[in-house]
Amino acid sequence: MSEVQELIVNMGPQHPSTHGVLRLIVHLDGEVVTKVVPDLGYLHRGLEKLAENKTYAQFLPVTDRLDYLAAISNNLAYCLAVEKLLGLNVPKRASYIRVVLAELTRIVSHLVWLATHALDLGAFTPFLYCFRERELLLDIFESYCGSRLTTTAFRIGGVPKDIDNNIRQKIEEFINIFPSKLNEYESLLTNNKIWLERTMNVGVISAADAINYSLSGPCLRGSGVEWDIRRTEPYCVYNELDFSIPTGRGIGDTYDRYLVRLEEMKQSNGIVKQALEKMPEGKLMADDPRVVPPTKDKVNTTIESLIHHFHIMSEGFNPPIGEVYQSIEAPKGELGFYIISDGSPKPYRMKIRTPSFANLQVIGKMCENNTMVADVVAIVGTLDIVLGEIDR
Amino acid sequence: MSKQEIIETIKAKFAGVIEEVDDTLDLTVRIKKDGILDVCRFIHDTEGLDFDYLTDICGVDYPERQPRFDVVYHLYSIDKKHRIRIKAAIGENESISSVESVWKAANWFEREAYDMLGIMFDNHSDLRRILLPEDWKGHPLRKDYPLVTNVGEKWLEEKLRTHVPV
């Protein structure tokens, strides 16, 4: 007598292809997936609660720990949100520096995605290639702000450090060689038969469904929706820069999202190049003594500046009562900060809208229609999730 | 559509439901909680408004206020490229209608609001905790929940004590 039984497989939270501590409960009928139930929260650190107990400046380093592969994007979104609340005008040069670093971060994030995604699907060489280039970029971040991952690269009101000739030279060297490196990745994957078999028509999501499930970033553009916050609601100086928004072939499968991310790296490279050329001279921090502390040399030489610095650092500043929502196009999608201020130096409530959280939700939908168990790995990879910003 | 036109269109249909409109920084509309599903469906379906993208749902706790919580919806229109924030106040033992039937994405956002603040949603398909363990006590983003506690350690001790290996 034979009995047909559903097989339930527990994938994660310590599984190499879940890209962090994601746990998936996969229901199988033979090799076909019938249902996928994600279980989150293994990396929950209560960052939103923590935000309510820190001053605005103190919370800035914590934002590095959201999407730890693209810390600079998190810093940017947070600084822009607080600046919107305060009504601060950031100097032009600082905005250009922010754009340069944010776009380099996009490349870093996409490189890690490509490396791990290809590794999950059995291609080992792209992993080595991508991490080789990522190393160059992390060196640039290190020479700019002293750290490679948890950067805290910006400050509320501007940037702490200028892009000097040394760093500029490093960046220019990188953007000159990077297009040829992109060709290397493409030559390994884009027309590779195994890659095509593993990615084409896997994890298909239609444009209407993608919008209804609140996908954003490359996951949404892969379905053919041309929506990029850098274009529709330009922040920093994106309205002065020329770039295109790739949307893939319009099928919405894993291969489309691969094409979109590759093209985005190319576009980011172009944006960095333009931004370096157009970057004007000028100040690095906004002119507002309520928020911006005096420079270090003044702090070291005059008692007034020392007191001023101490005052801002220890007590913080009091933004006006109100609430703001500010979002940016982070490498993974729409990253938004919703801050409610009650006029005190600490936020009353801060909600962080992270792209990975919304993007992961679609996994159940993507695994419909006779998805094989091996394709779950491809789907987790194509969503490009980081558990740091899902669990917060 | 300008902010003013958006407000006019919603007001024309839901005059009795809207309590307050504020457009100093972002356009914000406060509505009565019973009207949330109707308003959401209307602004999702109506041509010209087309709020087809649910950016976020979150809860806010005001312990001194009656009713105690706010549920905040951030909406966007991919086509028309405008944003709106909708707020509805809800008391401690009350519940609010889920908007999952309008935007599928609401599922997890509402689960998070339930997990973090204990806000109950009616007609939600799967209202469970999402980030914290199923048997966790309390809702950490409430203002009366302390920042530093030993709840976590106690929970873990209990688990280790009662855990039976399979």
The CATH architecture designation of the largest domain in chain A is: Orthogonal Bundle
Largest sheet of chain A, described in full? 3 strands, antiparallel
Q: Determine the oligomeric state from the structure.
A: heterodimer
Structural class of chain A: mainly alpha
CATH topology term of the largest domain in chain A? Cytochrome-c3 Hydrogenase, chain B
SSE succession of chain B = HEEHEEEEHEH
Number of strands of chain A: 6
Briefly summarize what is shown.
By secondary structure, chain A is mainly alpha-helical.
Describe the structure.
- The complex is a heterodimer of chains A (392) and B (166).
- By secondary structure, chain A is mainly alpha-helical.
- Chain A has two domains: 7-39, no CATH class; 47-391, Cytochrome-c3 Hydrogenase, chain B (Orthogonal Bundle), CATH 1.10.645.
- Chain A contains 17 helices and six strands.
- Chain A has helices at 47-51, 56-63, 71-86, 92-120, 125-145, 165-189, 193-199, 207-212, 218-221, 229-232, 254-278, 296-301, 303-315, 355-360, 363-366, 373-383, 387-391, and strands spanning 7-11, 23-29, 32-39, 322-330, 333-341, 349-353.
- Chain A is globular, with a radius of gyration of 22 Å.
- Chain B has a single domain, classed as Beta Polymerase, domain 2.
- Chain B has helices at residues 3-13, 36-45, 106-117, 151-162; strands spanning 18-22, 28-31, 53-61, 69-76, 83-90, 95-97, 120-122.
- In chain B, the strands form two sheets. Chain B has a five-stranded mixed sheet with strand order 1-2-5-4-3, with helices on one face.
- The chains are: A mainly alpha (392), B alpha/beta (166).
- Chains A and B meet through helix 1, helix 8, strand 4, strand 5 and strand 6 of A and strand 3 and helix 3 of B.
- Chain A: InterPro entries: NADH_Q_OxRdtase_suD, NADH_UbQ_OxRdtase_49kDa_CS, NDH1_su_D/H, NiFe-Hase_large.
- Chain A: It is found in: Cell membrane.
- Chain A: One of its GO terms (molecular function) is quinone binding.
- Chain A: This is NADH-quinone oxidoreductase subunit D.
